[in-house]
# Entry
Amino acid sequence: MLDFLSALSLSGPFIPHGHCYLWQPELVWLHGLSDGLIALAYGAIAFALAYFVNRRPDIPFPPLFWLFAAFIAACGVTHLMAVWTLWVPTYWLSGTMKALTALISLYTAVELIPQIPVALAMPSPTELTQLNQALQAEIRDRTEVEAELRSVETEVRRLNQELEDRVKRRTTELEKAKQRIENLLTQEQQARQTLQTAKDDLQHTAERLNLALSAAQMGTWDWNLLDQTQIWSPQTERILGYEPGTTTHTADHWAERVHPDDLPAIQARVDQVLATRQDLSGQYRVQWPDGHIRWVRAYGRVVAVKAGQTQRMVGIMQDITESKRAELAQQASESRFQAIFEQAAVGMARLSPAGHWIQVNQKLCEIFGYQPEELINQPFQAITFEADKGQDEYYYQQLMTGAQPYCQFEKRYVHKDGHPIWTLVTVSVEESDQAEGITALIAIIEDIEERKAFREELMKRADELANTNLVLAHTTAMLERRNAELDQFAYVASHDLKAPLRAISNLAEWIGEDLEGQIPAENRHQLHLLRSRVQRMEGLINGLLEYSRVGRRERKITQVALTPLLDAIVDSLAPPDQFTVVIPRDMPTLYTYETALSQVFANLINNAFKHHHRDQGTIQVIWEDQGSMIQFAIADDGPGIDPQYQNKIFTIFQTLKARDDFESTGIGLSVVKKIVESENGRIWISSAVGQGSTFYFTWPFTKQL
# Structure
């Protein structure tokens, strides 16, 4: 044994472990300090465990704690050996310590595993405390119950009378609440009718305006200057080179399409109109992404000014490319200009650079009522309407300074008989190759009295449409507030009504349990009637809430496969085994509100076997494609319904059986009718006494979105 121990302590031919680290001081001390600290921690843990077990002899499984202490101490020794072998290569001794640690670890694991189920089964101190508290509470409760039972016999009559009085009072309150809810439902229906009327009027107005704009090949625009948002019609988007619905409507997107050479002038004109609140009238070029150049004529008007600030501007836009091309072609050919000057269908004139008439055609004379000799050598402003002279001067300076190669604007001339005439004036400069500067001004003057009146009518209609939109938005907001108020009232009413009902039901149940076997059969029957009527009132409240929410909850259109949907509904209803529900396997798939359609099917199928007069029967689902609608039928072989009562069953709170014989709120079919009609469908019944009943309803047949 001494020789074996001596051999363990010998280093033999081995070298210290530090050689593996090339005796780099940082690396050697890193490993040495780390293993040393681990050994120190393991020793402290082992000492703590041993101290704890020694001080607590009542602790369960003390051998396991001693094994854990030995296992941790052995692990610490292996780390000490790792430090030792850095300088002394006694690897046999180190390996022996590791083997000893392994044996202790293995033995600890073997002893630990069988004790785990026993440890898990032991109650915790918290559980023991809770059990003790629960036992004490039960003893106190039993003592109190025994004391109360001794006085129950003398109190039962008084409690019965008090309960009957409370039921009467609550019944009266429920009837009043029911009347209030019915009044609210009536108000809701009236509000919906008002909203529908406003929507119809708005649609008719919009259709008339769209027809007028389509005939004039014009688009509309609406500019909110407060938040810098714009609304364009689809025709406006096409004029600007956008596919309708593919871009946001902003001034930046409009400016992207305006020709760079025309953008400063038209932008300056818009700023001037906003500052002076005059009507906007002008034309400019639009450059599409494919390089095409289009000419656009725009009109606008300020329609909202508040506190001296312009808030909103609306107008129209027209593609005049073809007419503009014709105009430019006419200006480009001087020889052709002379040939067609007199035969032109519009007024034409040449003016000197000083602004005097030097040539006029017959059409222009007809427009103004003058003879040519009465106009020649006269300044053009001599017959200009006084209020438009400032505008004339502005465009005259633009042409003469070369700021614009041409100008187009609306102005009023004074007819010879004294009345003003609205005209569209297009002026361009005439320059000669032989002379420097402008030699003449070429003016094309069109009588736009009828066009102006038509445009004024369009602007008026646009204003009416904008005002109608505001009224509709106000009506919609008011309806949303009314719906929110109705939801809040329904929630509060249901909570306030259900709370006393639950209290009555619980009180009746407690009385029945406490006096089990001590009260007469008549009193037991009265308690049963009390609980059933409380349940009926709670069903009525829930049904009224469901009825009031139909059509007002947010819904989402989804793809609905009808056959799986009906299979799931029948499975959830769980009809008696003696009933057969026949569902076609070829039913289509449609896009609709799945929850609403499921509720209709569930109510009708559930009623078919709930109101059946036998314990077995057959219910059949039938469908028929009617184009834009799909017709469903739920047929049964039940007792049938007399024709004189068939309209009554869809009325809220109406039932065909006494409620004491059959529990029913009389709301289910009224909810179904409201859901179907909210989807523009209809529901009806075909039935005869003894021949079963068939409920028909139609539903929108949307096959794809």
